[in-house]
Design a protein that fits this description.
By secondary structure, the chain is mainly α. The chain folds into 4 domains: about 1-50, no CATH class; about 65-165, no CATH class; about 165-230, no CATH class; about 235-565, no CATH class. Helices cover about 65% and strands about 0% of the residues. Mean pLDDT is about 80; it is low at about 225-230.
């Protein structure tokens, strides 16, 4: 790189125009090669300047100042979200009038995000108007100092605000989650746990200055449960392994690899155990591994691999439109077969399903922007759900399959029958509810990533939220986006609940325990790594995705409990 920079600088000297070369980096690096931490070597980066400057400067420059400075030098608009200031070293040779204009413009941008320093700003702008009439250098220097003082104050305030964290709430979240984990793991009445969480959260929200009171209450309740209850241990090795891997930003960015490894490893183990029965039986789990090799290429995901070509890219090429339609139609047929085989609907119900899938095919292939057809399909799904017969979970699963078939991209429809088949194979070969819960959790997240999602907010697809809508309705858009994003986590959970050989309370308990373990890990990692370079780009988005996932599943549990108790009267 030294040679490359040298060639660039030497070449620029022969150009007709005056040239400035800046060399810097987005982060530093330790001598051992690591980066992303909070050490001096990782958070301080050299800024080397090559050009026609008469003096050197050892002034420390904030990275937030670089975009603002470059915008000024290029004479282009400063980014509206900028919180930095123009480094005066680079404009010191400008005329005073030009420097004042630069400072004035810089201050206007900063004031979009902050209203502090109002008095000095008004004073400086008034003096600036007078200066433009008389060009008094002494007054110009006063204006310069007022502008620069305001810029420094606002910029520092915005920088501090952007990294401000509520440590109390982070600590409280961890302690409360750990306490809930212990209460649920020791089989304390679930309703008492929910009431306890709501009361403590309400108390903390209203009385943040007395946060130590609910913390003490949490500790007392935990000690009490430990004293009188016994643990129900679940398989811990994969959970602990997963928790350890989440300490690394790279593993979070490429978490799809972890879930695919877990899912395929379990399939391989099931295949080996099935050898005792017959060779033919052992081939079925192997088919899961083969299918995942194809499904993971449906949509490239992760931080390193998202830009790689995948099967959906090939299907979406204009010259492959016929293959695209065939693949979509085949996926819908598989969906219909799976629903007919596993849930054995009556003839009328099968007709409803066939009409629904046909309407979805026409809508997705030819009338995607037609809200009226979208509304019609939602109406058909509603009628199909009402006409369904059978137990609660079969109705919920069938309805959910119809909904996500409409929401998913056409090339992702095949993931639905894959999810149902893999779940059925796992249930037949595994008896332990704890292990089955892990398998279904891994399955849901594996397909979450196969769908094209990642631990980045940018991967969320908003287009399905507008199916059947003629205008933006925030609540509906938000709800449908959540349904589309967590489609397979919800489906895998409902499939597990459908197993009659397990009590629903037992299924919920093991599921909540695993969710809490992951949440506690993410809370802890985010807290420990809150000074990490990637806290806002990696750890915070992961915390948001896992938290929303937990809220969604909690909501599903509440619906199931209410339906069983009130509608089906089974509790």
């Amino acid at each position: 790189m030294d040679v490359v920079i040298e060639q660039l600088v030497e070449s620029s000297r022969s150009w007709d125009k005056e040239t400035l070369v800046l060399v810097t980096g987005d982060h530093g690096m330790k001598d051992s090669g690591g980066h992303g931490g909070t050490t001096y070597a990782e958070t301080h980066v050299p800024l080397m300047v090559f050009g026609n400057f008469t003096s050197r400067s050892n002034e420390a420059i904030s990275q937030t100042d670089i975009p603002t400075t470059l915008s000024t030098l290029f004479a282009i608009e400063i980014p509206p979200s900028s919180i930095g200031k123009t480094v005066q070293y680079f404009v010191k040779d400008y005329e005073l009038e030009e420097q004042l204009y630069i400072l004035y413009y810089n201050l206007l941008v900063l004031r979009r995000n902050s209203n502090i320093c109002e008095e000095n700003f008004v004073k400086a702008t008034q003096m600036h108007k007078d200066y433009l009439k008389h060009y008094d250098p002494k007054k110009g220097k006063q204006i310069y100092d007022l502008y620069y003082g305001c810029i420094n104050t606002i910029s520092e305030n915005l920088v501090q605000s952007s990294v401000q964290q509520n440590t109390v709430f982070l600590i409280f979240s961890m302690i409360l989650s750990i306490n809930c984990l212990i209460l649920i793991a020791t089989k304390v009445n679930a309703y008492n746990v929910y009431l306890y969480v709501i009361l403590l959260s309400f108390f903390l929200t209203c009385n943040t200055q007395f946060y130590y009171i609910p913390l003490i209450c949490a500790m007392i309740a935990t000690i009490k449960s430990l004293k009188f209850q016994s643990y129900n241990l679940i398989p811990t090795i994969p959970i602990v392994l997963h928790a350890i891997l989440l300490q690394s930003s790279s593993f979070i960015e490429e978490e799809h690899q972890i879930y695919l490894f877990f899912t395929c490893s379990v399939s391989l183990i099931l295949s080996y155990l099935s050898l005792k029965t017959s060779i033919l039986t052992s081939l079925i789990p192997l088919l899961i591994i083969i299918s995942f090799r194809f499904l993971r290429k449906m949509n490239s995901t992760g931080d390193m691999w998202a830009s790689y070509p995948d099967f959906s890219d090939w299907l979406l090429r204009e010259d492959n439109f016929n293959y695209y339609q065939i693949f979509f139609a085949t996926s819908l047929i598989f969906n219909l077969i799976i629903l007919s085989y596993f849930y054995k609907p009556k003839v009328l119900q099968r007709c409803f399903f066939a009409v629904t899938f046909f309407a979805i095919f026409v809508f997705k292939m030819h009338f995607t922007n037609d809200p009226q057809l979208g509304k019609f399909i939602w109406f058909i799904i509603g009628l199909s759900s009402i006409a369904l017969k059978g137990n609660l979970f079969k109705k919920l699963i069938t309805t959910w399959v119809l909904i996500i078939t409409l929401l998913l991209r056409p090339y992702n429809i095949l993931l639905i029958p894959a999810c149902i088949l893999i779940s059925a194979i796992s249930v037949k070969r595994v008896q332990s509810i704890e292990i089955l819960n892990l398998i279904h959790s891994w399955l849901g997240f594996s397909l979450f990533f196969c769908q094209g999602h990642s631990n980045s907010i940018a991967s969320i697809d908003l287009a399905p939220a507008y199916i059947g809508l003629e205008s933006y309705i925030p609540f509906i858009v938000f709800t449908i986006t959540i349904c589309h994003t967590y489609a397979f986590q919800i489906l895998s959970t409902l499939l597990l609940m459908n197993e009659k050989k397990y009590e629903i309370d037992e299924v919920l308990q093991t599921n909540v325990i695993y969710r809490l373990v992951i949440l506690i890990t993410i809370y802890s990692v985010t807290f420990i790594q809150r000074g990490h370079l990637f806290v806002w780009s990696v750890f915070a988005p992961k915390l948001l995705i896992e938290s929303v996932h937990s809220v969604v599943l909690f909501f599903i549990y509440c619906i199931v409990i209410v339906l069983q108790k009130i509608v089906f009267n089974k509790l």
